[in-house]
Design a protein that fits this description.
With 93 residues, the chain is α+β, with helices and mostly antiparallel strands. The chain is 26% helix and 25% strand. The longest helix has 14 residues.
Length: 93
């Protein structure tokens, strides 16, 4: 299953995309799926194994997200991950 990183604004989405490309992280900037219409219009799709690396890059560069979801390509396969499920996030104060 793939992972979506959602953003509060286009600014953070495009800033994360640029950073991930510079770091060589495999990902895609895509339109937000309709079932997640509450977020901005862009999100980043990446493999779950790369999530910890991506979140670390974002944290180190002041890029915030509005949520991370497991995503199987359809509304029924879209589940928001809790902070405890995010690498390094549960350690934040």
């Amino acid at each position: 299953m793939d992972t979506l990183i959602m953003f509060t604004s286009y600014y953070f989405a495009t800033k994360a995309e640029t950073l991930f490309k510079e770091k060589g992280l495999v990902m895609k900037l895509i339109p937000t799926p309709p079932q997640l219409h509450h977020a901005c219009g862009l999100c980043i799709l990446l493999k779950r194994v790369d999530l910890g690396t991506a979140l670390g890059y974002m944290r180190d560069n002041g890029i915030s997200h509005s949520g991370v979801y497991s995503y199987g390509g359809s509304a029924k396969d879209c589940v928001k991950l809790s902070a405890d499920e995010l690498p390094g996030e549960s350690l934040r104060g």
